[in-house]
Amino acid sequence: MMATDAPTLPASDNETNEADETFFRLKHIKFFLRNLDILPTVYTSADTSRITMAFFTLSGLDLLNSLSSVEHKQQIINWIYSHQVVPNEDESNLNECGFRGSSSNGNPFCPEKGNDQNIPFDSGHIAMTYCALLSLIILGDDLSRINRKGIISGLKHLQIKDGSFRPVPEGGENDMRFIYCAACICHILDDWSGMDRDLAISYIKTSLSYDGGIGQGPGLESHGGPTFCAVAALSLMGCLHETFTLHQLERLKRWCVMRQQVGFHGRPNKPDDTCYSYWIGATLKLLNIFELTNFTQNRLYMMDTQKEAIGGFAKWPNQSPGKLFSQMSSTLHLIMLNVREKVVAGYIEHR
């Protein structure tokens, strides 16, 4: 499926049409609030990842300074904690601890009770643990109910010999995404014993591709998503500039800058996609070269993917809002963190 035509660009910043820069903030807030309360049937297949959907929704509202619109914050916090897989009495499941994505495995919702039921394959998922911790922080929780021993033990068990991580104890894909999740979890809990950093760094180094970008693993195609995950993980570990040579860093920067056409795309010869305004944009911020991008073109592309009627952002112009809100939350992240003064001053339309 190919993207629709890119939006027409102004000849210069001075010729930018103000209407093209209208940001429908209140529409987006209402969209998030609706999806926080009830999801359309199209999301049924994502029921096992409800923690992730909650994170995208809450982070979007937070970036829009609208968390005050969320009612029953404590109930949401309790719901998140109800998905924590904690050690049982004999700690025989210590390597399975973390957060599950939902109660779809049969575990009943009961935030007041402990994990006293032995349900097969009831284990934490590294991405759900990442999303759960961030959601709790967004909601202002003090993380006092987090079982740190269980999470760190479960995380350590997920790392495999090449340095990457699998998502669950039972197996699954292992790639750069989960190294990033692991680094975030260790950073949040301030405990790096949950991962072998040297092994993870080695995996990242060997995933550097011939063209300067970073792939999901060694020998794989450079891609915007894993490039961000690798750079962000190294930044959290405090060793970005020690891991790559100056020449490698310069090639990496060039690869990222070259991903902009109007908005950003994740691979060469692919259409622009709103989510890469975050994945590539955030990478450029971490590399301290975001100013080398054309901010005006990127903003116009993102504004063109808004859904004025119902709120939300789409993957491409004239499409429906993206599944799991990834495009919307990523776009909002970039807009709210990197908007120019003129956008803050007068171009964000509150309606």
UniProtKB/TrEMBL annotation:
Name the CDD domains on file: GGTase-I (cd02895)
Q: Where is the Prenyltransferase alpha-alpha toroid domain?
A: 24-322
Please verify whether the record's keywords include Lyase: no
Whether tRNA processing counts among this entry's keywords is no
The Gene Ontology CC terms held by the record are:
CAAX-protein geranylgeranyltransferase complex
Query: What does the record give as the reaction this protein catalyses?
Result: geranylgeranyl diphosphate + L-cysteinyl-[protein] = S-geranylgeranyl-L-cysteinyl-[protein] + diphosphate
Alphabetical list of PANTHER family matching this protein: GERANYLGERANYL TRANSFERASE TYPE BETA SUBUNIT, GERANYLGERANYL TRANSFERASE TYPE-1 SUBUNIT BETA
Family the entry assigns: Belongs to the protein prenyltransferase subunit beta family.
The protein, known as: Geranylgeranyl transferase type-1 subunit beta
